Each structure stands twice: as structure tokens, then as C-alpha cells.
Amino acid sequence: MKYIEVTFTMGDTALWRDLLVDSLGNEGPYESFVETPDGLKAYVQAPQYDAGWLSSTVEAFPVPLKFSVAEMEDRDWNAEWEKDHKAVLVEYEGGSVWVRAPFHPHRTDVSYELVIEPKMSFGTAHHPTTYMMLSYVAEMPMAGKRVLDMGCGTAVLAILAKMRGASRVAGIDVDEWAYRNAVENAATNGVDIDLRLGDATSIDGTYDVIIANINRNILLADMERYAAALNPGGSLLLSGFYEADEGVLTAKANTLGMVLRNKKNRDGWAAIQLVKQV
Length: 278
What we know:
alpha/beta; four-stranded antiparallel β-sheet; globular
């Protein structure tokens, strides 16, 4: 899958950067972002790039923006930063999860260790949303559960769920790069996960836990499908959105028979646990 890189420059960078990320990631299809000294780099899958939508978004932005567009090669372009890629220790009440790449040292003083190859897929525990979701999966009962990881990315969450004793774990991602990376990571960690390429229409069967770390708009659009596939008493774990968006997601969940059980916040991002009423 080819990606488009859009480089933005702006005046008061710190003040407006988060708003731009929100506009591109929650209102639009942009998946990842890299801060620069004078702005932001944003990445979107080439088939989802819309020059007209981008121009309209820039014109409507509260401050003037300059931007340039470049097509990235269809390759593992994260290889350039692998040498600086750091392992992450996720700490939670009662234990810890060590998420590392193959070139990082093995640790025996942690509760769980996951080896995740850092490619173009989302999910290396560096982002606050992945960190929070890993802590949810580590803290909640998983033994004997049927678990679905929507937008699984590297499959880091699905892998941890399987390590913790889930009876069946499925992972779905719309991006072929992510799917291939997830298959590789599952094999590396020695876990059996049902991985497939697709979107929410690919959901089959019912689950006790559904995980979706995507973005606000996709979560809202697909929540009805999640609710339909969730067993009564089951948990829906959502992240990929800012604290300010928690209310609209919870309100949508309430209309589908789910209530807020727990929430986490980290660096302005939010994660919530919703439970389907019996």
C-alpha cells in the first residue's frame, strides 16, 4: 500500500498542531503524524487521499497553513528510524508488558513480553492510545474469552489477549501492509490468531471482548456492528480519540445498549471500556 505524505508549516505550531491532527485524523482519513519544528507531517493511504478535501480543510483552518504533498514508496519506509526505535514498558496494576522489536534485549522481569516488528502498521505501544489499550488487555480477565481486535495494526493487542488465555482471538485490518505485519508478528510470538484483511463488514460470530483503536469517525460509523457482535455482559474497548470526544462516543454507545464502565486518559488521548447490558 502506497502512502501520501503531506507536510504542513504553520505559525504558532504548538497552539494549532493538535487541532490540525484532530481535523485530519478524526474528520479525515489520515492515520499517523510526525511533529516537526515548524509544523506537522501527516500520512494517508494513497487510495484515500483527496486533494479537494485537503484544500477545503486547509482553507477552513483558523490560521494560515502551507503544505506540500509527496508520494511515499510502497516499502517499509520506517526502516530509516528503526535504529532509533525504542522498546516500551507498559506498567499496570499488578504487572508490566515489555513491547520490543527483534533487535531489543529480552527481559525476564516483566509479566509479558511481545516482540513486534516495527513496520508501517500502527501499534508499537509508543502512542498513548496503544499504551492504554495494552493496559486494559493486561488488566481485564481474558482467560476463555472470545476476543476481536478491529483495526489490529501490528496485532499487538490481539497477541497479548491470546497470551493471557483468550480462547479465540480474531484480528481484522483494512490495510494489506498491516495484515501482513500482523501475520508475521503472531508467528514471531507463537500465538494462533485468526487474522484477515477487511473492515467491519468482515466481522463474523460473537465475542466477549471487542477492541477498536482506530479514530472517532470510524468508531462512530462501525459501533452498531460492534454492538451486534458483542455478547451480553461483554466489553467494548475503544481508543484512538481525544478526551474531548469521549462524550459523543459514550452517547452513541448508550443508544446501542452499552454503558461506560471505565475510562483512561494519557497525554490528551482517551480510552474507554463499555459494557453491553444483559
